[in-house]
Aminotransferase class V domain-containing protein (Coleophoma cylindrospora), 452 residues
Amino acid sequence: MGEVSIETLALHESTSYKPVPFGKEMRKQFLFTPEWTNINHGSFGASPKAVRDKQKEYQELCETRPDPFIRYTYPKLLDESRAAVAKLLNVPTSTCVFVPNATTGVNSILRNIVWNDDGKDEIVYFNTIYGACGKTIEYISEYSKQQVKGRVISLAYPHEDEDIVKLFKEAIAASRAEGKTPRAAVFDTISSQPGLRFPFESLVKICAEEGVLSVIDGAHGIGHIALDLTTIDPDFFTSNLHKWLYVPRGCAVLYVPERNQPMIRSPLPTSHGFVPQTKSELVNPLPTSNKSEFVNNFEFVGTIDNTNYLVAAEAIKWRQEVCGGEEAIMKYNIELSRKGAASVAKILNTNIIDNKTYSLSNCALSTLVLPIKVGDGGVNREDVRKATVWMVDTAMSDYKTFIPFLWNSAEQKWWIRLSAQIYLDIDDFEYTGKILKELCERVEKGEYLTAN
């Protein structure tokens, strides 16, 4: 790389970018192979070449002088990225740290809460919870020897926002009526499967009124929808930066307001920043810092390449200069999602999952019903799993794309989730609609039954 100083790679010395139109021209800024249609941005995200190049610079700089970089330069650059993300969320930098992903964020929260030993504590959540977070609640219940248990709220979409709010209030009331203590509630900004927006702002208010800790799984939040956490004021919030903010994976923000930071005693895993309540002879080998215990805990969590954390600020800068800023990105993605979903629904002669106020679709994810008959004259119910796997695999092998399929057992129908993004346009959705139509026809012919 040549003689490159730390100062040369500081954020204020970063590259200036030129604006690029959304759609096919913007696609060139990413690394997709020519034949691949990335209609599933929501699962793992994607980052621009320019941001990845910046990360490579930091990686190479680290290799030139590992100790000075890891011990002294890394924390300074990390603070710059934390500050940029905090500004985007409208919160103090002191309330934001980075973790590898939102699942780790949710685990960091729930595993640090000290549950009451009377066995009455409950975690309230919806049946649309992300699977890993649902498993986390089950694990904590098991690990705590049932000191805390989960209380699930079942949703059958489409719901209006006020219906979800009503069910949430009823679940809290039911918990107390049964002599339980609703200690915490976990809910999404936008659920993963199905991909629908949640009335999380209203749920936070209810939690505050009811004395329940609000834990927002914002995996699909930052960079996707506008978020003002000072106004929303959740007790805890985590969000992937590698999905919709274009930071290289995996990277997520964990927001904990200062009032709740004493609750978060340790990151996962526990590392040098942990301050035990009892006297310890162990010395922190890292440079002395005047940052808070919360920030120090998460700054260094074992040796791992976290240079992706360092380019969060660069990704935000890229979004501003290349894309025209957050509002322009969100406007394009949400409009494309609605228009694209409508075009796919027309091709398939099916319907989009939404409510009368269109609040569920007020995001860049859309969920549609797949028009395949199940039961009499259609796919046998015992073959649903096999047909699902076949459709996923065939979409990748024959059509060079990935489409998330969700089996809705209550309605005995498949749902699909599509993602809009700045590197896509309406042509990509129309192509996806044609793919899905062919897949449906091939399933109806029983082609999946002969698959190995």
